[in-house]
Structure formats: C-alpha cells, structure tokens
Amino acid sequence: MDYFKKILRFAKPYIRYGYLNIFFNILYALFSALSFAALIPMLRVLFEQEEPVTQKPVFEGMRHAKDYVMDYLAFQVNEYAGDDKMKGLVMVIGLVLVLFLLKNLFNYLAMYFITFLRNGVLKDIRNEMYRKITDLPVSYYSEKRKGDVIARITSDVLEIQHSFLSVLELIVRDPLTILFTILVMFSISGKLTLFVFIFIPIAGSLISWIGKSLKRQSDDVQKEQGHFLSIVEETLGGLRVIKAFNSEARFYKTFSASTKRFFDFSNKLLNRQNLASPTGEFLGILVIGVLLWFGGKMVLVEGTLDAPSFIAYMGLAYNILTPAKSISKASYGVKKGNAAAERVLEILETENPIIDKEDAIEKTNFESGIELKNISFKYEDEYVLRNFDLNVPKGDTVALVGQSGSGKSTIANLVTRFYDVNEGEIKIDGIDIKNMTKKSLRNLMGLVTQDSILFNDTVSKNIALGKENATSEEIIEAAKIANAHEFITDLPEGYETNIGDGGNKLSGGQKQRLSIARAVLKNPPIMILDEATSALDTESERLVQDALDKMMRNRTSIVIAHRLSTIQKANNIVVLQKGEIVEQGSHEELLAKNGTYKKLVEMQSL
After folding, report:
1. pLDDT value at residue 109
2. Exposed/middle/buried for residue 294 (C-beta within 10 Å: 0-12, 13-18, 19+)
3. So what's the pLDDT on residue 406?
4. How far apart are CA 294 and CA 503, in angstroms?
5. Residue 16 banded pLDDT, cuts 50, 70, 90
6. Each residue of 338-371: b (16+ CB within 10 Å) or e?
7. Domain boundaries, the chain
8. What letter does residue 246 receive in the DSSP assignment?
9. 458: β partners
10. b vs e for 396-415, b when ≥16 Cβ sit within 10 Å of the residue's Cβ?
11. What sections of 238-355 are H helices per DSSP?
C-alpha cells in the first residue's frame, strides 16, 4: 500500500473528479440494492401471500422504516392494479426497469468522471518521469540500460493505470454495493445473513493465498520486458555493425532467449491471475448453494421466512458476487501493480547528486578565465584525473591532446558539470561552478562533440536548439559561419527539411556543420570542442575546421583534439598521459622540447 499512496499523490489536481465519482458510486450502490429489495412487497401482493394494503401507511419513525417502505410500495401496487394482476405485473416490471436504468446511469457517470482522474494521473506521472530523466546526471545512464528506462516510462506506467488506478473505480463502488446490499439482507433475515458471513473468511484466505506471489512474478515480467527493449534499442542503434559482421543470428539468439524468459514469467503470472476468477466464482456459487439449502429450510420447514422475501434475498446475495469478485481482482491488481510502481518510483525518487545550491549564483557574463585547481576525479574505482591544474585565460584556445583514456573528454564533462569533481575546484572568474546554477553555467558554454547529436526535426529547429526564439536571419547567418548554408539550400525544403532520426539523411560532415551552426547561434563566450573533426574525411574536415576557426574567433575555447594538425594555432597545447599533464606550451615550443608531443606529431605524419 505504500506504493499505492505514493502514486495517489498525483491524483491531487484531479480530486474534483474523484469526488464526483464517489457521489455517483454511492447512488449506484444504493440503487443496486434497492432494485432487488423493491421486488418483495410486489411479489407478496401478486402472489396473494398477504392482504392488499388499501390504506396509505403512516411513517412512525426510523425503527419502523422497513415496514413503512414495504407497506407503501404494496399500497401503490394495489392502488394502481386493483384486481388486475397484469397491471400490477406491468408496474413491477416498469419500476424494476427504472431502478436498473438509474443504477446503470449512475455507474456510467461514475466511470465517466474517474476516467479524467486516471488519465490525468497517467499523464502527470509520464511528464514527471520525463522531467526526472532529463534532470538526472549523465552518470546515471552509464549504469542503466536505455531500453529499461523506456520500459519504465511506457509499459510500467501503463501497468500502474491498469492495476492501481483501476482500483479507484472499485474502491468506493464495490464496497458500498456490498454494504448496502448486506444492510438490506439483514433487514430481510438477520439469521440467514449471519450464516453467509461464516463463509467469507474461508473465501478471503483462499484469495489471499493465490495473490501472495503475484508481486514477485510481476517484477520478473517487468524486468525482462525492460531487458528485451534494451536489446531492441541496441540493435537499432548498431544495425550497420551487426549487418557488417554478420551477427544477426547472434543478436536474434540473445533476443529470443529474453522473450523466452518473458514468455515463461508471463505464463506463471497470468495463470496465477486467471485462477482468481474461477476460484471466486466457485466460492460464490458455493455460498449460493448453501443459502438455497439453509434458506429453503427456513421457508419450507421452519416457516420463518416467506417465499417472496427469499427470492429477493437470493437476488441480493447474487448481487454481492460481482463486486466481491471485482474486489478480489483489484487486490491482485494492487499486488501486480506494486512491481511496476516500484520501478517507476525508483526513477522518480532517485536523488540527483548534481543539484543547484539554494543560494546559487545566476552568472550571465564571462570576464577573466577558467581555472581547474588541483582536481581529482574517478568514474568508478580508479582515478582518471589526479591533482590536475589548468588555467584557460579569457580569449585563449587551449588544446588537450594525448592517447585515448588520458582524461581529455573527462575535463569537458567536468567543466560543463555533467559530473562533479571528487576533489579540488573548477572556477569561472574565480567562482566555483558548484556555486552557480547549472542553467547559467551551461548558458556560458557551447558544445560540439565528435558524435553529431541531431534530432528528428527540421534543419532550422536543430540549429535553433539553444535559442528557440531565433529569427530566420540569425539561423541563416549561423549556418553561413558554419559553412552549412550552401548544402542546406540544396536540400528539398531548405531549412525546413526534416533530417531524419539522428540526422541520418545527412553526411557526417553535414551533420557536424549543423552542430557547429547550433553552437554559433547560441553565441556563448566559452566553446568546448570534443574531437569535433576526428570522424570526418579530408574534404569535410577542411570545411568543418574552417567553420571552427571562424566560430572560435574572440572566444575562449577548450579543444579536445585527436588530429594534431587542427590545433597548431592554439595558445596552449596540454599533453595528457594517464590523467596528468606531461607537457604544455605552444606548437613550436612543444616540438622544440622533443618530447611526447613531438612523438605524437611524428606518428600522425607517417
């Protein structure tokens, strides 16, 4: 129930729909009981088991309310029908039809209003999950499979709607239907009703036994679904590599093994869940059978209950079966929904380690430079950077070079605060970046990565990602600086051309120039280039490098370079090895030292 309560907090904005649902459910439950109780006095008159009531009864207080209602209905039947039994039958049928019509009308209205609550909660949970997904740090997704996160925001949230939120439809209606029905049953025969209650604990214990393992089995199903969605996500992302290495059979084997486990887990779960309905129905029929025996004895042998009352009583007893079965199903739903809710809430309740301080500064300008002071950082156990110091004066271009794994990209991740340093400080204009808001920090920076991350949208919207209110003229000017305007105008719809998923309708060089145009339009004072040309051919590299040179003018830049030919004009080239600086200086100074940098240059020139 803890998960259920946590999910219900999303229902607060829609509470008015909940109240309307409760109101109409009360009416539904009341008319559900009355529709059967109304039969008793009419059956008595029609079967002539008592004298017709010819005098209008007088209400003598709540203690005699039952007798008053019975006599009043009998009086109305007698007034309308007289000696014509067919007219009385028509009145009986008409009244029963009206009561059932009202009962079902109220049921529809109750479900109508709860729909807004259910779907509203579903919408808000998904919105909150998406906000949380974008808010959590990059490090969170190095540990989680993306497919598993997708499964949580889709199928797990849907499972919550089908389990937890479906309970909202039953939480008032079915208990009240049972309550009102039992009250009417007590008014007919307390002895017979008490006899019914002997069997309720037996039924409850059986239902509880069936439902005990549902949460664990449902948890297995949800986890396995996340696993095979991850396989699908990885397959689509690496389809070219899979085909190139003829690995289709291997990936199919992995996927089919996952779906086989999902098949087995689902069979166990659904078969246990399906056991609920026949078990509940059998227990209900068992109660009806016992009632027929015990009630029949009261009518035929003891004479303590008349036949019309017994007929109506059996109708009321049957009226309990449907809501009782619904409640048992709902209890399974809650157990099954617990697993989905646990997975959803795991994301929603994950603490974000990279958060703004309460008194964080909104920094809007860049004045003197960036300082990395004695920083150390590790992703897991081993330090990637240790006691690292670096100054980047305003207006300078600092290039970071070195072998893979030397910590170059880590510095970019730390300066942008995708990760926080374990030790030391990173300062901008003498202010620790942890004391700035993340939004204002990242507003000062533009990022161009090796992998051009574009979105399934138009060219103009991809360029305007960091400046949504940008004019067409600004977008075109940024594209010209990035050497992208010419190829964009050749596209079928120019700047309004959709570039496909990940920009796959464009070449590598074209995608990279769009990424540069996006950074140019944002116009930040600090530019971070993470191996922006390493994946390009010679012609594309020349166009991209020219665009980068134009972009970096009058800006402070941190350039992570693989191709050393692209950073020879940098003010300071920093050579890294295993997270430490081994050399730094200008291109000419480092060549004169005849050290690590010169060896790297010679290796690339071979």
Report:
1. 92
2. middle
3. 78
4. 76
5. very high
6. bbbbbbbbebbeeeeebebeeebeebeebeebbb
7. 2-348, 369-605
8. T
9. 498
10. bbbbbbbeeebbbbbbbbbb
11. 239-244, 248-274, 276-297, 307-348
- Of 90, 121, 149, nearest to 17 (Cα)? 121
- Inter-axis angle of helices 200-211 and 307-348, nearest 10: 30
- What pLDDT score was predicted for residue 603? 78
What tens digit of pLDDT does each residue of 120-174 get? Answer: 888 898 888 888 888 888 778 776 777 778 888 888 888 887 776 677 667 778 8
pLDDT tens digits for 516-553?
A: 888 888 888 888 888 766 555 566 667 767 777 777 77
* Torsion over CA: 479, 483, 487, 489 (sign): positive
CATH T-level topology, domain 2-348: ABC transporter transmembrane region fold (1.20.1560)
CATH architecture type of domain 369-605: 3-Layer(aba) Sandwich (3.40)
What's the gap between Cα 424 and its chain centre?
37
Question: CB–CB of 460/517 below 8 Å?
Answer: no
Number of residues written out for the chain: 606
Segment 250-272 shows an average pLDDT of 82
Q: In 3-state terms, what secondary structure has residue 405?
A: coil
pLDDT given for residue 20 in this prediction = 92
* Most confident segment among 31-45, 235-249, 497-511: 497-511
Give the pLDDT band of residue 64 (cuts 50, 70, 90): low
- 8 Å CB contact between 353 and 330: no
pLDDT at residue 496 above 60?
yes
The span from the CA of 408 to the CA of 377, in Å, is 12
Candidates 546, 512, 543, 548; CA nearest to 528 is: 548
The pTM is what?
0.72
The pair of structure tokens assigned to 143 is 């540990």
Question: What gap in Å lies between CA 287 and CA 196, rounded to an integer?
Answer: 7
Is the pLDDT higher at 538 or at 14? Answer: 14
For 434, other C-beta atoms within 10 Å of its C-beta total: 18
Burial label, 454 (beta-carbon count in 10 A; 0-12, 13-18, 19+):
buried
Q: Which residues make Cβ contacts (< 8 Å) with residue 403, sequence separation at least 6?
A: 577
